[in-house]
Fold this protein.
Amino acid sequence: MPLIAVLPGDGIGPEVIDASLPVVSAAAKSAGLTLDYERALVGGVAYDDGGHPLPKKTLKLCDKAAAIYFGAVGGPKYDKIPDPNLRPERGALLPLRKRYSLYANVRPAFAYKSLEDRSPLKRERVQGMDMLVCRELVGGAYFGKKQLKATSAYDVIEYNSKQIELILTFAFKAALLRKKHVTLVHKANVLATSILWKKVWDKVRVKYPDVQVDDCYVDAFAMYLISRPATYDVVVTENMMGDILTDEAAQVMGSIGLIPSASLGKAKTKWGVFGLYEPSHGSAPDIAGKGIANPLSTILSGAMMLRYSFGAEKAAQQIERAVEKVLDQGLRTGDLAAKGETSLSTTEMGQAVLKAL
Ligand code: IPM
Ligand code: MG
């Protein structure tokens, strides 16, 4: 029986994971897939427990799992840990991404019909948005050499052509299954790494003659993402640009609580691609423990897990349709509710999706 390592983590992590697991498990079961779930500590709670945000026990569990279902890590309390390498983001999440070479972070951003009025953009601009951001996840400034001194600091952005080729190839393959258009986002007017990205891009894109391409400076893309988001299909970019742009894309959708994420590597298990699945939002310490967080991003990440790590496409779509249905029914968590609209708790939203399955 395939095993899922469940790492709820900090802040709203445990709340959104608890609301999502019954949905994932029910959809998996209906596809004839019985999954085993085992929990472990990660992030600040793990640090509190044993002095490290990524305990050996947790790594052992992840090593034998077919996928990792991740909540969120971090919080103001843990920003004060003196050694930055022991803080939850740099001490747990990034090492997990690196350990399993999860180079492709996939974040689908699209406009739900019933949420078009929740986007900060005018309806006619957001209508039809349906993009897939492929963010390189194990290179760039996140993993380059760093130094922090009293009055100076640096973070090196480093990429090699192999790394770039991997994520570009991933993006082109994804585009073949969609609208066959890839946009490369870069800053080649300033950054040497972006010049290399464009060089590799020119080599890779000719292998996919059926795919239309364009490329765009990241500052301009940030602008187009709010002026004409519906014109994009697959968007591929480096680590930090992808981090920033996917938050922007999430807000265009209506809430950061909506956008799911899959982090995939080259490793395969018996059932599919090994991956880490997490909502794109963070631990949201301001609302943690209140039971009001939106679990949809985590539920939809669970759907991606069934799709990529277990080849259960039908079950994934079943979840995605159920989410659409509850939104069509007008059910909303606080982040999505308009003034005067009643909002559901995290648990109630999870149950609503379960019922809609
Ligand atoms: C994300 C998050 C992380 C990142 C943080 C928590 C380190 O913002 O997954 O987008 O920057 O990658
Ligand atoms: Mg982010």
